[in-house]
Amino acid sequence: MELYYLTAHELHDLLVDRQITAEELCRAFFERIDAVEDKLKAFVTITRENALARAKEIDRQIAAGGQIAPLAGIPVAVKDNLCTEGVRTTCSSKILYNFIPPYSATVITRLNQAGAVILGKTNLDEFAMGSSTENSGFFPTHNPWDLERVPGGSSGGSAVAVAAGEAAVALGSDTGGSIRQPAAFCGIVGLKPTYGAVSRFGLMAFASSLDQIGPLTRDVTDAALVMNVIAGHDPLDSTSAPGPVPDYTAYLQNGIKGLKIGVPKEYMGEGISPAVKQVVAEALAALADLGAQIEETSLPHSEYALPAYYLIAPAEASSNLARYDGVRYGYRAEGGTDVVDMFMKTRSLGFGPEVKRRIMLGTYALSAGYYDAYYLKALKVRTLIKQDFDRAFASYDVLLSPTTPSPAFRQGEKVADPLQMYMSDICTLAINLAGLPGISIPAGFADGLPVGMQLIGKPFDEGTLLRVAYTFEQNTEHHKARPKI
Amino acid sequence: MDYEAVIGLEVHVELKTKTKIFCPSTTEFGGAPNTHTCPVCLGLPGVLPVLNKKVLEYAIRAALALNCEIAEFSKFDRKNYYYPDMPKNYQISQYDLPLAKNGYLDIEVDGRTRRIGITRLHMEEDTGKLVHQGTITTTPYSLVDYNRAGVPLIEIVSEPDLRSPEEARIYMEKLRSIIQYTGVSDCKMEEGSLRCDANVSVRPKGSPEFGTKTEIKNMNSFKALQRALSYEVQRQIDVLEEGGRIIQETRTWDEGKGVTLPMRSKEEAHDYRYFPEPDLVPLVIDRRWVEEIRASLPELPDRRRQRYLEQFGLPAYDASVLTSTIELAEYFEACTAHYPDAKTVSNWIMGDLSRLLNVHNLEITQCRIRPEQLARMLRLIDQGTISGKIAKTVFEEMFATGSDPEKIVKEKGLVQITDEGAIAAIVEEVIANHPKVVEDYRAGKEKALGFLVGQVMKATRGKANPELVNRLFKARL
């Protein structure tokens, strides 16, 4: 297989065996980027010089004879809502088209300390609001399995970079499915950790109580390796969980005998395409063959997850995005007659339509006279949804569902109908509301397009998710497929 | 009709922690614009607030000193509104679950004690500062300084228990005194570390119902507070007397014109869209920690004043003045440790020392006279080395230079002349030179003696022992 299609742990083995240098690896990935990026548009910013300098430095460290850390020299792509010191970070928004942060996100600092080589910043739906990367303020990204189709979103650029061999692994962020849904659409692994498992410091906030950063990778082992680097308490994020961090690779065990898997019937019902149902049913059969006990269960408040999410997330976003006003950084519209006029012009021209829609929705939900009926009620629904999961986890080790109702849809298909677009996250939203870990892994194909299945775990039980995912992966071939581009 | 005022105050106090409430930037006052900042207090994208534990400790300390109940569970909320001095266009504050509530403080008005309720005390971050060229409406551009953004504040909201502008001023002074005692703030109104807004209404005396209130802003001194409230109370009475209605609105105090002016109406009021701050975890406040903080509180002004009455036998007025700030009280007590006559010490502190501090615009903490030096000077008077009059000169020199009183007396030759022979000679000389005055005195003009004594003092540059001079004149004439 081509170098650029190997997993991070395979590349690591090559580095350890001195079969390749970090610089050669880096150049190989840039060659790949040069070959396919025009068609895919996964990156907003490519940091070629920085990356090559970094790779050479890693080579010097390797030559000096140190231990080679698992991600040392590994080419990585990061979503462009993660702040990178000295490197433009845009959130794929015109309002931040020129913003260069004077600090790095904690996950970026940790990647750098681990020796990873960051190749560039990947495209997303503006401020991570969207499910197709068509809401990018710059350009859409294309699915490597079918360039006419969307890669999913909002971490579409990161998913495409990994799926198409433009990076070995990538970081994304997930507020309602933004890691898992594009991972499913692009045929790779996407893990959204438990809320609080990974520091959010330096992640440009969309909805603070829902956002989590996580890995997009070609296999489950790589996901565990990335988690080993990025997870753990951060004094700069009060919501990051204290306590020791496990060695996530310790959960990569092939065996799920007796493990109890619940399948919520609400996630397999109306709205899920027959092709997806078929793939998930086959995956369930495979898991049953591997010794898992599989039962149907119920999460009765599931139908309220989407409306609750679309009150809570926009409410927080309306406040989080208030700072983009043209005063201190980013885009400022010309011709403002006074400060309020400058605010309005800047925000009118700087934000795209979906971002404006959510700011208005959220502002409305928090307004006097509507707060109780909308925002407060949504918080109560959120509690009910959490309780649904608590009850289910009293009986099951993990829950399993499709990641998305359908495989990747066509570019432009849902742009005119926001509700249809929102529905593509119907299987993933509730997991963020409950703060739980969720992983999407390749489960099969429908009409040549990848289909993902989602495993949902108890809080901070990424370990069991990784074990189930790893076992499935070791006994199936879906994760080995690569798009022909 | 007889009216009474109903006033409640919202007081903001800056806490003097070393660093800001949610980031490591310094809280130091002044500094070149935007130098006391970091990505967090500038509200850059992706940064997160982390609560400074010292802020919580200081806020609890202030709340306990104000007899508040400390919540077991509290949280922060976002107050959303757009203003360019707010880096995030929201302020992290506390809304429905404040840190503390149900407190009080006692004030003395016309010799009576009045208990003023404190509704709540909560923590929040300060905003930056806009600098306009000219006025806000005509300026071609405005400059913004974020040095103050993120400085910790506590907001203390009183019950509408105050019944006159004077009571409001006394409440503020008492509040300042208590907070200063706790050491959590300098409470300097001129530097903005103590600020206050007032809710004001009037009603017929004895009526149980509240009138329509206005909110008064921009009162930047204790004097301004009392003046503004006096104006506003009278304005409201005049409106009612003329058969008008009070409009609920926010008004600003114009110090130059001495009037309150409308700023915004109720309809124009912001909808702050408060909601729980998702970037901070709720606070569960450990009771043992609260008790530790309570145990570490100093003796507060009321109790200290009482002790001064009992322990030192001081008049009520002296006790009040000396306990008005903890620094003055500590200075006083340090003096009495070296010189036990408390009333004499009090006289010097409240008299000459206060006057000199005022003239030179200094705080007691900047005073160069150490308490034991003041005590030594008082002993020089007792020993007859210097007269009370000379002591004032010595004291001024001590104040200016910080020198020891003995050294000043010696260097300036200020030792009192008590040699009877030497003074008697001068007395003879004065009698010889002023026969007319001597005659007047002998004729029964008591006042004439004063002139003669004065001549001796003049001749000795004030160093003659005045009692001795008097005695010698009386014996001789």
General description of the model:
The complex is a heterodimer of chains A (485) and B (477). Chain A is an alpha/beta fold and 485 residues long. Chain A is built from 15 helices and 11 strands. An 11-stranded mixed sheet of chain A has the order 1-3-2-4-6-5-10-11-9-7-8, sandwiched between helices. Chain B has a 9-stranded mixed sheet with strand order 2-6-7-10-1-11-12-13-14. Chain B has a 3-stranded antiparallel sheet with strand order 5-4-15, with no helix packed on it. In chain B, strands 3-16 form a two-stranded antiparallel ribbon. In chain B, helix 5 crosses helix 6 (316-322). Classes of the chains: A alpha/beta (485), B alpha+beta (477). The interface between A and B is large, with 45 and 29 residues.
How would you summarize what this structure contains?
The complex is a heterodimer of chains A (485) and B (477). Chain A is an alpha/beta fold.
CATH superfamily of one domain in chain A: Amidase signature (AS) domain
Task: Kindly state the number of beta strands of chain B.
Answer: 16
- Mean pLDDT over the residues of chain A: 97
The level 1 CATH classification of one domain in chain A is: Alpha Beta
The structural class of chain B is alpha+beta
Rounded average pLDDT of chain B: 93
Total number of helices of chain A? 15
Determine the most extensive contact between two protein chains: A-B, 45 and 29 residues
Give the quaternary arrangement of the chains: heterodimer
Assign an overall shape of chain A: globular
In terms of DSSP E residues, the strand content of chain B is: 15-25%
CATH topology of one domain in chain A: Amidase signature (AS) enzymes
Order of helices and strands of chain A: HHEHEHEHEHEEHEHEHHHHEHHEEH
Strand order of the largest sheet of chain A: 1-3-2-4-6-5-10-11-9-7-8
